[in-house]
Amino acid sequence: xxxxxxxxxxxxxxxxxxxxxxxxxxxxxxxxxxxxxxxxxxxxxxxxxxxxxxxxxxxxxxxxxxxxxxxxxxxxxxxxxxxxxxxxxxxxxxxxxxxxxxxxxxxxxxxxxxxxxxxxxxxxxxxxxxxxxxxxxxxxxxxxxxxxxxxxxxxxxxxxxxxxxxxxxxxxxxxxxxxxxx
Amino acid sequence: xxxxxxxxxxxxxxxxxxxxxxxxxxxxxxxxxxxxxxxxxxxxxxxxxxxxxxxxxxxxxxxxxxxxxxxxxxxxxxxxxxxxxxxxxxxxxxxxxxxxxxxxxxxxxxxxxxxxxxxxxxxxxxxxxxxxxxxxxxxxxxxxxxxxxxxxx
Lengths: 182, 153
Description:
Chain A is α/β, with parallel strands linked by helices. Chain A has seven helices and six strands. Chain A folds into two domains: 5-82, Methylated DNA-protein cysteine methyltransferase domain (Double Stranded RNA Binding Domain), CATH 3.30.160.70; 99-176, Arc Repressor Mutant, subunit A, CATH 1.10.10.10.
């Protein structure tokens, strides 16, 4: 006895309407592979390049009432970004990170489209000029890559250093944005 | 280590089909509304769950309560003194199509026991009764099915 797509859809709608969901998520196709995207009532909470097991991860942070459901705004803005039609995102974010991470991510959000910044410079902007390594850790744990553009942060010598989605994806995003790469 | 409570999505996907099947047997055409109500009730309680044990019988319990509400009966099976009647699952398959004619509590007990293989302790939880009463309800249901089957044979 299988639940029809229509019945399934009605249940998911009712659950959201009643406000019973801690976090909803969707899997979005993109030129850099499938992306796991998750949002709470407060805003976009997570983007991951590795969807496997992410339901459990977001359940631990945001609550066990996790439900798959289309996130149309997020999908649309990501599509526009990957088509080169969008330079900035207009999405509310729900960041649950430690204060230092929040400071660094706030500065990261201001790095303009198509430009790169070094770890050290970002550390300085966050008021911790000697914390380049710690900034590397913040980038590494960035809960919302792409929208919070950690792909724009590079090493002091211009090398790409690292990226959660892989260096090839970092390069692809920077090329999409027309960044000048040293 | 205690098993972590799964994200609701996993719990839902794992149980949605069998719960619908169960409610169809109890309620026929009215099953869809009851099915949605079952998972909404589960969701309302889900963040207060203390552990991940017996989630399957937990959702069958909710489904049974919703069905009993729908049928406007109290899930209190009569306890009688007749010896317990059990049948094998393959024997049940021949009688399965007749379960729609059983009184609601017997129907729930029989379907949970033979259709979904739940132990009596969990059927008792689902019916809000003692294990003895759950056994009696399933047993009485099986005898009733047999009588009906013989009449039709």
